[in-house]
From TrEMBL:
This is Endonuclease/Exonuclease/phosphatase family protein. Keywords: Endonuclease, Exonuclease, Hydrolase, Nuclease, Plasmid. It holds the Pfam family Exo_endo_phos. InterPro entries: Endo/exonu/phosph_ase_sf, Endo/exonuclease/phosphatase. GO terms for molecular function: endonuclease activity; exonuclease activity. SUPFAM superfamilies: DNase I-like.
Length: 298
């Protein structure tokens, strides 16, 4: 009799979970950040990485489809048509305002690396003005795309897609690259402080070109000074394997993370993980030198 009761108990729990699971799934939302490496429909002779075949685009699209993400923060995308070939028709695409005609002075002539978002249609979103991360006059780079997304049954979430200055990946040096990166960190810090002052939840996703999880990192301190921001990717393991630049027939695995997710302390997330490429596809197709990084807002 006790055994029969136990079986009925587990059956009842299974039925309850089955009934509630659609509602549980509806209240969670997946976020992904991905630098797609010179993604464009008009390749530049100057950058061989920008040249892709239809098979390459198909492989990227298949990889994106496996993630089933609600929000994609992207970097290094030149045009909407190129990203549409990857994400398909079920997403609204928001390209950085740096791509607008009134920002011609901030653009390169042949190819550009824009930030932005692809957000699944049906989600409640509100476009905000980009955040200028470079304070230098007539700078052509580093606009952070800014959106507000309101998940079901949750408060509005302020989100940024960023791509910070390269060539200052380690200790701070008194170089122009490090000076620019420091100024970008301070600009992000001000944005974070503004969100916290207004009691707003936030998430910053993107390519920081820097290992923020290094203990005592100077850029992390600059970005989060006097704030309560949290590094969601603090313990994320670098598992991404890409094609070696020096030996194209071999794989290269990065030893640290430069793609990160920063969040306000109120947010509850799954542990962010890299969505790695199958090794055979890395060598067969031109994918990206970054793997997507994904988390779920619980």
């Amino acid at each position: 009799m006790a055994k029969a009761y136990s079986n009925w108990k587990y059956l009842a729990l299974a039925l309850i979970f089955s009934f509630l699971s659609p509602y549980i799934a509806a209240s969670s939302l997946s976020f992904t950040t991905w630098n797609i490496e010179w993604l464009t429909t008009t390749p530049s002779k100057q950058f061989i990485e920008s040249k892709r075949t239809q098979a390459d685009f198909d492989a990227l699209a298949n990889h994106f489809a496996t993630m089933n993400t609600g929000v994609l923060a992207f970097q290094e995308v030149n045009d909407i048509a190129a990203l549409r070939a990857v994400v398909g028709k079920d997403y609204d695409i928001y390209l950085s305002e740096r791509a607008n005609t009134n920002n011609k002075r901030h653009q390169f002539e042949n190819i550009n690396q824009y930030t932005g978002f692809a957000i699944r249609k049906g989600l409640s979103v509100e476009r905000q003005s980009d955040i200028r991360l470079d304070q230098l006059k007539n700078s052509k780079l580093r606009f952070a795309t800014y959106m507000i997304v309101t998940p079901k049954q949750k408060p509005p979430l302020h989100i940024l897609s960023v791509h910070l200055k390269a060539r200052c990946s380690g200790a701070y040096k008194n170089s122009k690259d490090c000076q620019v990166l420091m100024s970008q960190g301070k600009a992000l810090n001000q944005w974070i402080l503004d969100r916290e002052k207004a009691d707003e939840q936030y998430m910053i996703l993107g390519d920081f070109n820097h290992n923020l999880s290094y203990q005592g990192d100077w850029l992390w301190k600059a970005i989060t000074q006097t704030s309560s921001a949290s590094l969601a990717t603090l313990s994320t393991q670098p598992r991404c394997k890409v094609r070696s630049r020096h030996q194209p027939k071999r794989l290269h695995q990065f030893r640290s993370l430069i793609d990160h997710i920063i969040v306000s302390k109120e947010l509850s997330l799954s542990a962010p993980k890299q969505v790695t490429f199958p090794s055979e596809q890395v060598l067969k197709y031109h994918l990206s030198d970054h793997c997507p990084l994904q988390t779920t807002l619980e």
